[in-house]
Amino acid sequence: MDIRPILTADQQLSQRIRIPPHRPVLRTAAALFAHSADSWYWVAGLLTAWIAGPRDWRPLLVLLLASVIFTAVLVLALKFLIRRPRPEGPWGEVYRRSDPHSFPSGHAARAALLTVLLGFAGPSWLIIPLLLWALGVNFARIGLGVHYLSDVIGGTAIGVILGCGLGIWWM
């Protein structure tokens, strides 16, 4: 099966989703969303919550931390196996240097994973804000040109599958 037509359509659609350079406010908002799913922020935040937060949160914090780390390792292994280059663009130099491969999106996987796990473990009112955040992360990654649409779809699928498995196990 020749997937080149699918990849071409993916690139074209992703290009249409990109935020133009003459929209600095939108690009800044997208950058905030894009970085909000950075793994080092989540690792630091979860460790801080484990140290400073209530003791009864610790089992959930350990689960979240372990799942963030596991997801990062899994995504990185898949990226080096698949080796799809990132889209060309001026934004995201740090990603292009440190992680030149785009499929699947680790940020999308992390956002979906955390959304699902916190949906299982947290209060029900938290689900809608988490879903909006995860969608914002996904569109920001495409809009800033560091991922293709299929990258975030693949990352989201990984995060949802892992999150559901761990969430069911947690319950």
Looking at this protein, list some descriptive labels:
171 residues, mainly alpha, 8 helices, globular
Write a brief structural summary:
This protein has 171 residues and is mainly alpha-helical. The chain is 74% helix and 0% strand. Helix 7 packs antiparallel against helix 8.
Write a structural description.
This protein is an all-alpha fold and 171 residues long. It has one domain (38-170). Helix content is 74%, strand content 0%. The chain is built from eight helices and no strands. Helix 2 (24-35) packs across helix 7. The protein is globular and about 50 Å long. It starts with a helix and ends with a helix.
State the helicity in percent bands: over 70%
Output the radius of gyration.
Answer: 16 Å
Contiguous low-pLDDT stretches (5 residues minimum) are none
Distance between the termini: 41 Å
Main β-sheet, in a few words?
none
Structural class: mainly alpha
DSSP strand content: under 5%
The number of helical runs is 8
- Topology order in helix (H) and strand (E) letters: HHHHHHHH
Count of distinct structural domains? 1
Number of strands: 0
Mean pLDDT: 91
